[in-house]
Amino acid sequence: MTAATHRAAVLCGLGGALPATAVPNSALAAELDTTDEWIRTRTGIRQRFVIAPGEATSDLAVAAGRRALESARRTAHGDRETRGGGPGKDAAPDVDLVVLATSTPDHPCPATAPAVARRLGLTGVAAFDIGAVCTGFVYALATAASMITAGAARRALVIGADTFSTILDPADRTTRAIFGDGAGAVVLRAGDQAEPGALLGFDLGSDGAGEELITVPAGGSRQRSTATPPPERDRYFTMQGRAVFNEAVLSMSKSAETLLARIGWRGADLDRVVAHQANVRILRAVADQLGLPEDRLVINLVRVGNTVAGSIPLALADAAADGTLRPGDKVLLTGFGGGLTWGSAALRWPSPYVEPVA
């Protein structure tokens, strides 16, 4: 690194993971008061994946993390083709930080990241969780990148993973239609801002006044301190859809515009926008706010639904594997979630090895 460049976190590995069980809209229609058409026209989603009994968020996080580490190893060796092959044993052994974004940890205590790190053979490294719901991956990415640029880490594994099927009301057709389980991960290494894959900037924000728009009312210290059993419905995830729609479009658009101005890009400069995969109408509205045609959007919610913190990295993995993301593309990431929280990041796309997310 020369005096003319600046230390940066560089994306050098990418992977995703989905459970084995796909749930098409027709399966929900057979169980709930809904139809395939109702779900597709309101969300754009045709199917989602759910974990099997006994599986947990950490299982998906480990699978995605292992693939991202293998991607980083093969990228470093110049193997950038998309093809099959199992993970190598020497995948990125110098990772010294694991950050896991999740709202569905394996346990309320302790954090899930240390167990994920151990299962990946990364013993002794710093590992912690971040909870920002659907914005979690962007928050985790910014945290890991900051630690790298500050010199506190050399290489980081950043994972977004959630299993919202475990906190949904089985009788709620709306939330069950929207959410699926999944995980995505990236590897960041220390580099400089001139490199492809360098993270060029972030914009993060929150507004706690909207905390009740996206929430699980029971299970935390506020409810538990009352020593009163909560109503059954309070154990499940709830969302005020119309208000969330409006807030999501406004917050992601403003965050994206703020970041673009900060790094000297215009909306028209963007080759791809990878937004949180919540709802196809939200994605289209964000593109419209940025003055972009719909074909600049990366959309994979059709087959995976809303995977919460796994959403953005899974979309990246799909788009990289099918060639939608090309080396040199100017890429914007943007998300919105409970809290309320929002955030954006920008980079020029590198050329990592990546395998399709089955």
Largest sheet: 5 strands, mixed
Helix content: 25-40%
Which strand-content bin applies to the residues? Answer: 15-25%
N- and C-termini, Cα separation: 38 Å
CATH architecture: 3-Layer(aba) Sandwich
Strand arrangement within the widest β-sheet reads: 1-7-6-4-5
Structural class: alpha/beta
Task: List key phrases describing it.
358 residues; Peroxisomal Thiolase, Chain A, domain 1; five-stranded mixed β-sheet; four-stranded mixed β-sheet; globular
Write the layout of secondary structure elements.
Layout: E1 7-17, E2 21-24, H1 25-31, H2 36-43, E3 47-50, H3 57-76, E4 97-101, H4 113-119, E5 126-130, H5 136-149, E6 155-163, H6 173-178, E7 181-192, E8 199-206, E9 214-215, H7 221-224, E10 238-239, H8 241-263, E11 272-275, H9 280-289, H10 301-304, H11 311-321, E12 330-337, E13 341-348
Parallel strand pairs: 4-5, 4-6, 11-12
Antiparallel strand pairs: 1-7, 2-3, 6-7, 8-13, 9-10, 12-13
Helix pairs in contact: 3-4, 8-9
